[in-house]
Hints:
The protein is an alpha/beta fold. The protein has one domain (7-196): Spore Coat Polysaccharide Biosynthesis Protein SpsA, Chain A (Alpha-Beta Complex), CATH 3.90.550. It is built from ten helices and eight strands. It has an eight-stranded mixed sheet, with helices on both faces.
Amino acid sequence: MSLHPTLSVVIPTLNAETALADTIQSVQGFSAEIIIADGGSTDETIAIAEKFGAKIVKSEKGRGRQLRAGGRAASGDWLLFLHADTRLSEDWDGEAWSFMTDPRNTTRAAVFTYRLDDPTPPARRVERLVAWRTRFLGLPFGDQGLLISRAFYYSLGGFRDMPLMEDIEIIRQIGRRRLAVLKPFALTSADKYQRGGWWARPVRNVCCQMLYFLGMPPSVLVLLYR
């Protein structure tokens, strides 16, 4: 691993014009390679990505498939997988750099601290739930980002081509003992909770995850999730 590692940021998109510019700008200052793995957007997503000089990778729709395609196109020593509606706080790069340059982390991965862009008490409740789940179960949300060395990522087989639970599957491969939580925030859109319900959405998430752990195929789970 180089003493001056390079970073590729992989962002899967599908009609992400509303949030994409903020997401790219939040990581652009790191001088990272930015890869947009697009699943067939029909809005201004591609135009926005091109405006920021991002590399565009076309893929069939499906987050796991898109993340996999973006990872294959990346050239960096390290990969940062980031959802299109998630932006990192301004202090993220210092901690990320410290993590990347520590030789002990070549077979570890890191996520960021989960925050929602909503000022209400229900949002704080969800954040506390995610913090508990991340710390004690080693199961962070996919929209907390994933920072991982390219070599370690490929040794795990990368993201699976799955319609759902691709984030859970790779975290299970990494394992709780090899996962660090960085203090900077991954600020994520609260839209799915505002639309789906502050109680109903987390309950649905937990039910889907339990069914997955019990062996239900992701192709079936995705119907329940939606």
